[in-house]
Specification:
47% helix; 268 residues; four-stranded mixed β-sheet; 11 helices; 2-enoyl-CoA Hydratase, Chain A, domain 1; alpha/beta; seven-stranded mixed β-sheet; globular
């Protein structure tokens, strides 16, 4: 196995034989949290990967041992207007659709915290493997907003509608073993075995017909009713954005940044 690597400000990309690309988010000072710059870099990288014939399988992960992606950057999000909130969600949707719909298999290797947007980007991959230290969650309601990168659509496809509602309404965190039990992840590995095992699985896939795998992925997505994906995601983005004019959003994100408990007003 050989490896070639390249880096941008927030991404590390490695090429392994045969045709396996490992893409890592690397923003260690913020536990790989997603801001606008990271999402733009991700979008550009995924577009190139989707259009590179030599790449047969993508492994998507986070750099370091603590976090896959700890969520969206609340410091950046906190002061957004409704329009800016919609635009931020739509940028997240562009990234997740590239993961979900590119003709190559995409595997999430979750190596730590995958909260909010981190869980949502993992959900956009074809399937998820986790280390025994992984933690998932959709904590957005505690910030006065909702999942904005496709979580309201994709989570139920993995765990079923009642469980998705429970996880989103409570915002609770789910450790690796429970994530496996509820169908969120395919398998859990010891932390030091996650990447070696995921690479083995990617190698198995890469040896098969790329044309057949791409056709199977397209049909599986189509039969899972992703034909209405754009309409559904657009509705989520606008609902996400409208919450940026509410007291609860301002209070929830301010409380997060100030490290205190929020005081919400309730329905308005």
């Amino acid at each position: 196995m050989t490896a070639d690597s390249s880096t941008t400000r927030h991404l590390i990309q490695e090429m392994l034989d045969p045709g396996i690309c490992v893409l890592k988010i690397s923003r260690p000072e913020a536990l790989n949290a997603l801001n606008t710059d990271v999402l733009i870099e991700l979008k550009d990288a995924l577009l190139k990967i989707a259009n590179t014939p030599e790449i047969r399988v993508l492994i998507f992960t986070g750099n370091g041992e603590k976090a896959f992606i700890a969520g969206a950057d609340i410091t950046e999000m906190k002061g957004k207007t409704v329009e800016e909130g919609v635009q931020f969600a739509q940028l997240g949707h562009e990234v997740t659709k590239l993961l979900e719909l590119m003709p190559k298999p995409t595997i999430a290797a979750v190596n730590g915290y995958a909260l909010g947007g981190g869980t949502e980007l993992a959900l956009a991959c074809d399937f998820i493997y986790a280390s025994d230290k992984a933690v998932f969650g959709q904590p957005e309601v505690g910030l006065g907003v909702i999942p904005g990168f496709g979580g309201t659509l994709r989570l139920s496809k993995f765990v079923g509608l009642p469980r998705a509602k429970e996880l989103i309404f409570t915002g609770r965190r789910v450790k690796a073993e429970e994530a496996f039990q509820i169908g969120l992840v395919c398998q859990v590995f010891e932390s030091n075995q996650l990447m070696p095992r995921v690479i083995e699985i990617a190698q198995t896939i890469s040896k098969h017909s790329a044309t057949a795998v791409a056709k199977a992925k397209h049909l599986l997505n189509e039969f899972a009713e992703t034909s209405g994906l754009n309409v559904k995601l657009d509705a989520e983005a606008h609902a996400f954005g409208r919450l940026f004019e509410t007291h609860d959003q301002r209070e929830g994100m301010s409380a997060f940044v100030e490290k205190r408990k929020p005081v919400f007003h309730g329905l308005s």
